[in-house]
Structure formats: structure tokens, C-alpha cells
Amino acid sequence: MKVSTLAFVAAAMALGACQEDKDSGPQLAGLYQTESTIKAGPLQVYTSTGVVSSPAVAASLLRRHWSLRSSFLKKDSVISVDNSLTLLFEADNRVTLTANHSGGSRVLALEATSRNAQRYLLSAVDSATVIAASGAQSRCELLADQVREHEPARRCFPVALMPGTFQSMCRFRPLQVLTIRNNQPVIPLYSWFVLVSRQGALCGQGQGFEWNVPSSNLVQRLAPGDTVLVQVNELALRKK
User: 124-135 pLDDT, tens per residue?
Assistant: First the structure.
């Protein structure tokens, strides 16, 4: 199975970043390029009672929600050379991410805002702005904001888009997460699907190939009837 690099780059750019002090950990320097294979991670089902690692349970969920299958890998996936990524780590914690594709390339300016022995947080140099939807969030929307370990610090303030109608405008810096293994960077490609059942009503939200990892307290955030299917695939980076 082949996965377009642009798909998970686009997903990564939709995330936000928090500003943190620099921690101890490896100092990456120079040019890194993605390997040719995405290693498929195990499918896991999170519920309020714990984590179920049974492939049969996860497969049953995907069969019932077939439109999500493209966001989860059954086996390792090959990336073509034309769809490679490069990360250039420069002085002053500056990082340049280049996504190559058959029609050219796309460049994103980043800054290493936090690092330790387990991970690097790379924040976009330019901030982004979003308008929050009006009205109370559904249970699905609430859970969708809680499935990631690394979330942005946002500055939000009310705005009047129409007379008598107020919404929230929020600014943040898009984020990419790298994990560190044996002092080498790895891109964690996090796919997830939130499923909530309440009094016969069913709703769900999902996302594929984000550069993030599951929340460490995700089980504690779930109520009876909540289900979250997760998979963390990995794409290693090698120094050129």
C-alpha cells in the first residue's frame, strides 16, 4: 500500500504548537531525509475500561466504518522517492521542512520550541488563525480535542461576525512532533477515530497521519460508550 506524503504533511500543518522552554535531549543538526517505508503500528481500541489490542476488535470497527480504512495501515507502506520529506536543522533552532512530490515541492519554516530525550516539538514560524464554531461542542468534538498528547497553547478572544452574534477567534502556531529513538528522529504518524454512542445516536470524528502521539491519559477521559481507535505508524529519518 502506498501513502501520499502530502496527505500527512497537510494533516500535520493543521495542528497547533505550544511554546515550551528547551529541555535536555539530543541536538539534531544537518539534513535528514525520510526512509522509504512507513512501519505500520498496531491497531488499538481505547474505552473507559482500558485498551483492547485485539486485531479482531479493531478490524470489526473498520468494517462497520469502511470510509475510515484509508487512514489506517494494515501493513508497512512504501513511499516513492518523489514523495520524500527532508528536514534541515540549522542554527538558532531553525528547521526547514521540505515536502517533495512529483509536481515540485513545498517548504515550511519551523522552529524547535521544545525537546527532550523522547521527543522534539517543531512549531511553525508563522502563526495561524481559526474561528471556533458557535454553540456548545458535541461529545465527539470534545473528545477530538483530547486525543493528542501535544496540543497548542491558543490565544482566543470573542469577535462579532454578525450583529448580536459572537464567536471565538484563536491564534496558534502549527506543530509537528518528532519522537526520538536511539538518538535518531522518527516521525510518528498518528491516525485516530472517535466514536460516541448516546441513547441510540451515533457520531464520529477522525484524522489520519498526524505528526503526534495518543494522549497519555486518554482512557481516563473516556466515558462509558466512548470508543477511540488509534494507530501510530512510524517513518524514520536518516541523516544525509
Answer: 999 998 887 666
